[in-house]
Automatic annotation (TrEMBL):
InterPro entries cross-referenced by the UniProt entry: Glyco_hydro/deAcase_b/a-brl (IPR011330), NODB_dom (IPR002509), Polysacc_deacetylase_ArnD (IPR050248)
Domain NodB homology per the UniProt entry, residue ranges: 33-219
Protein species of origin: Exiguobacterium chiriqhucha RW-2
Signal peptide per UniProt: 1-21
Official protein name in the record: NodB homology domain-containing protein
PANTHER family: GLYCOSYL TRANSFERASE-RELATED, POLYSACCHARIDE DEACETYLASE YHEN-RELATED
Pfam family, one: Polysacc_deac_1
Keywords: Signal
Amino acid sequence: MMKRVILLMSIFLLINSLSQAAIPKPKAYNDRSLIYLTLDDGPNRKTGALLDVLKKHRVKATFFILGKNIKGNEHLIRRIVAEGHLIALHGMTHVREEFYASPITAVRQMKDVQRLIYEVTGIHTNMARTIYGSDAGMTPAHWQAMDEAGFEIWDWNVGSLDHIYKKDNDPIEQRVFNRLEANYEMNIASIILAHDHSMTPKALDTIIRYAKERNYEFRTLEGVHPPYNFFNPWEPNE
Ligand SMILES: [Zn+2]
């Protein structure tokens, strides 16, 4: 009898330890080993080369699409979706005075790009990034209007400054490395801002290699809550 009890208990303990080993604890959205790579202002003629780099490394990113760039680039929008990336909204014109002119103009631009993306992909998304970041012109009235229209506003915590160092990759790479390290120290996930028109395939390749060597994991922003923005930044992970 005793033997049987011991046997049953050992089986129970074995199964218990196996099941715990098989199911790793899911990472929190703000886990410091996570990188959310975001690419703004596309699609354009450079998007394809960046998609090639992402594909090579099996990295998925989030593309904040500019409405005025959709026409003629529908194939790129479809490719972004087909290759498992997430598509999101970045307004229509990228003209600061037009977008932020009033809460109505901001909402209208987001709704316009939302509709265009729906027409091309069948995807309806409310994930949005306002041009130059939410601290560039969002008043409390803008926030309220965006919220009422159902948009979730995303900023970033790693600015690659690729649009400033367009010709030279080194400062872009070093800046991203430094910011990734700082966020890791702070125990928080990284959201990298880069641009379809400025990030070079070489710089993107180098950044991804750097991150993978350090066991970072790239994810899209799909299903991630709450949205990170300058007015509601994430707390460091426990
Ligand atoms: Zn932009």
